Amino acid sequence: MVQKERMIGLKAELEKIKKETLHKLEQLNTMEELQDLKVKIMGKKGSLTALLKQMGRLSPEERPKMGQMVNEVRAKFEEAWEAKAKELEQLALAARLEEEKIDITLPGYRLLKGNQHPLSKVIEEIEDIFLGMGFTIAEGPEIETDYYNFEALNLPKDHPARDMQDTFFITEDILLRTQTSPVQVRTMEKMKPKLPVKVIAPGKVFRHDDDATHSPMFHQVEGLLVDKGIRMSDLKGILLYFSRQMFGESREIRLRPSFFPFTEPSAEVDVSCMLCGGEGCRLCKNTGWIEILGSGMVHPRVLEMGGYNPQEVTGFAFGMGVERIAMLKYGIEDMRLLFDNDIRFLKQF
Amino acid sequence: MRVSIEWLRQYLKIEQTPEELAEILTRGGIEVGGVEDLNKGFKNIIIGEIKSIKPHPNAQKLQVCDVNIGSEELTIVTGADNILVGDKVPVAVPGAKLPGDKVIEPTDLRGVKSQGMLCSDKELGLEFVGLDRSKGGILILLPDAEVGSKLEDYLGLDNSVLELELYPNRPDCMSMVNVAREVGTLLGLKPKFADWLEVNTPLWPTDVKQKIEIENPELSWRYSALLVEDVVIRPSPRWMRNRLRAAGIRPINNIVDITNYCMLETGQPLHAFDRDRLKGTVRVRLAREGEKLVTLDGVERQLDNSMLVIADDSGPIALAGVMGGLDTEVTASTKRILFESAHFAGANIRRTSRKLGMRSESSSRFEKGVDPHGTVTTLARVAELLLELEAGVPMSFTEHCVCLPPQAEIEVSLKRVNALLGVEYSEQEVEQVFEALNFDYESKPNGKYTVHIPSYRQDLKIEEDMIEEIARIIGYDRIPTTLPQGIQTQGRRTPEQEFRRKVRHTLTEAGMNEILTYSFTKKDSDDIWGRRDMNIPILNPLREELGVMRTSLLPGLLETAARNTARRNLDLLLFEIGNVYWPHKLPLTTLPQEKTLIAGLVQGQSQRHWLVPQIKFDFYFLKGILSQLEMACGVEFTYTRLNNSRYQELLHPGRSAEITVGGEYLGFMGEIFPQLDEEWGLNRPVLFELDFDVLYKNSQTALVAKSYPRFPAIQRDLALVVPQDIPSEAIKNRILELGGELLQTVEIFDVYQGQPVAEGYKSVAFSLRYQSPERTLKDEEVISLNSNILATVQKEFGAQWRK
Ligand SMILES: [Zn+2]
Predict the structure, then answer these.
(1) Do A259 and B27 touch (CB under 8 A)?
(2) Distances (CA, A) of A342 to A121, A339, B563, B719
(3) Contacts of B518 in chain A (CB under 8 A)
(4) What domain range includes position A245?
(5) Lowest CB count within 10 Å: A4, A34, A73, A322, which one?
(6) Is residue A57 domain-shared with residue A130, that is, in the same domain?
(7) Complex confidence, ipTM
């Protein structure tokens, strides 16, 4: 009888614990409180633990029943506790996210980086295109002899074509090269009799000129290919490839007869306008075409002076102004800007 | 060369517009720089004759004229004072238009109604028109102007001019006849020329009295002269004046105009001497030292023995091919004339005209080459025009002909044409080109030809020249695009070229901006910053500030920095890689050494940013950039105090260093000397200049990767207080030495001066990293090493341990 009463008493207590605990659980707001509650109920000295300890005094038949009931309450409590814990965790995360919010409109920190000069950038780009086609890079002196700059290029003293290039002189026979073409003969002399001679020669050149479209110092890239059986159609093919790489896949080129003392036949090369695509605009003066370089088949005299037999080999040569290409590419209207070196201008490239 | 379309139409039936013709010529290799409409935009300008001139009743500076314009008489008020009764003048009648779309209306000028306006040449956009009295006033026309007719008809302005920009290989196109031949070839038309063009031998009796002698046959092959009597000087006819003006030449009188007209027509320059002023034999010879000549422009010229002259028994009478002399000039009273039509060697004419700074239509033709076969033909044309214009009677002829170059023959092989161009032209196509050019040729077996080159095409000498003719006349568009057939080669930069690129990229990645400055600079600056008295002077510099070749990159950098600073670009990180020029001997007898240098300048500080503090662009900042370069090149620089007396005046002695690599001098860096920066308008810039070759030679181009031990490292910090003069690096190096194999790295992570560190001392903090490749280090090992290091540096450097 006593046992029965005990049983009833425990049952009531269990019910009370269950009710109170679940109610309390609802009220909690922090993880800490939640942990405390767990200890209070299920810890060594917890109320549910205490209840279990009293089960020894129940009859053997009632013990399992009671045990089951306690377990049910415990399971219920744990389930509710987990749910609450999850809820609190999510609240805490949400609070943290809210708290950690930053002003995303503030500027980021950029590592200091400088810029290459637009001309050296364009030269590198031209170099890379021709390196890809199997050309190597040749160099020659900027202070040149009259021989290499003129005579070896089929321009004897007092030749009227010398007027095309106003020259800076150091002495009567030493001058600032007016073109990168002297590298043609220097390269052939060095290479002969090996074939093919396949080089480009970028570099500084100098002419006695200074205005919006001329600078007393500027840059050219010379090209030379000498081999057995080189044709003018090859020149056209190489330059078409170059123009497309440099100015876009849809570019076309056209050749116009021209004159250079060191090529025969000679051609001026126009590329279809990169701005209007050939329709005609201000950049191309409504012609749809823009002159970008001079070229031709190497004159037999020049081949001879370079040490090659014009009966056996032929070649083509071309030369382009780097400033002009940079101006076209970047829409620069005054060449002097390229040598003014204003840091605001340079930082664009 | 200015080509009048109206003139060209005399030889060819041209249907194209001037613009179309320009395009055809340009695509054919004769570049047309522009097409000019001779009428600059006026309309309804009528030629009137001034009948009376009265003063204006209400204005002192105005006059009232009655002007007959054929259909009626107008009253016109003018402010000009160069008119006389009877003058023929251009009248803008009501409704007329002037260039710039200015429309003329009847106006009331201070109480007098003006029914139009008298025009000046400027208002009409005209040049070389009218009598001398026109200058600065109303344009006064020649008496042959017809009252009531339109001004544009009278002046032949319903015409356009092509402005040819000729390459030096086509001087033949400085002649209307040859331009007509060229246009004919390109249009597929045969030009029609008058009979005189066929004349090759003189048609006149030989003048036995006038002797001609060429003394320098290498400079003059032929001198032909036509002797003319009964000369009457007067204006040339309207058609001739209009053609000369269209060509850009001022009409003067019939004789001068005929010489100019014939030169334009055939390309052969001519000169007219007053024969009654010639004394004895006409000689073509070099001037003698000390001889003088007053040229047509009234200037006395000092001659030397390189200049070819025409002389008579009294001395020089003309500068051959450049300009005539004043003494023998044709004047209003001239009765007999000797017309010179000669060949002179271009090179000599070019030198003379340069030396004297004189260029003329004649010299510019001779310089480029004149057909030596054309002297007599041109005189035949002169004779014809003299008779036509009733300007004189051609009486006799005389000449000295030393030699004439043979007509060129060029062997052309179709096989070679096709091989060089990469085309497959047929024999028929090539023959059509010869015919279009009007060249005689002989066909030989196997597609071979002998082509006879007419003497006016002096540019055609070798087979390749003919190949260009064939290609351009068939059209360059017919050449296909192919790729070279030979062996494939691999393109790559040489190691040195690659290294130069790497240096450039390393510096830009480190924050530096590349600049490019002129290779010539101001002598004063280069003397200071470069190698004094080593800079090579340019004989003809553009400006004095660009007078010498640089021996240092620093003046260019400083100038660039100064220009930027003046524009308030204060924070600068600049570098340049470029050549300087060091002569072996001055003046130059051989080419100088061209040395590549790397130089830079930093000034200011990093941009303000809300996240990080600003960094000063100072000595240490620049040293950091250079350490980037060290890493990229796989080298270590050694910095020692600058020991060069020259730089001691340019750089702050306490803030500059000499840089060596592998024991070799590489260059220097340092802050500019106080006050020197102000002189340049700069604010404490720090500079460097390094020798590219030395850097390249010492660089490690191949990278060998180091492997790092997997055992944990132990880090210990060591703060020392040392006398302030002791270089931090010396302590660092000693620590490294003392640490032995186990001490991997030593970094300086803090430097401090000021309280509580005593005056004259500094605190330097080192971070030491111990590690063994084989095992995990024990604490005791490190403690013992550390205390040994501490004890030694305390003793050796007088350092105190700052716990
Ligand atoms: Zn366009």
Answers:
(1) no
(2) 17, 8, 8, 45
(3) 216-217, 339
(4) 118-346
(5) A4
(6) no
(7) 0.88
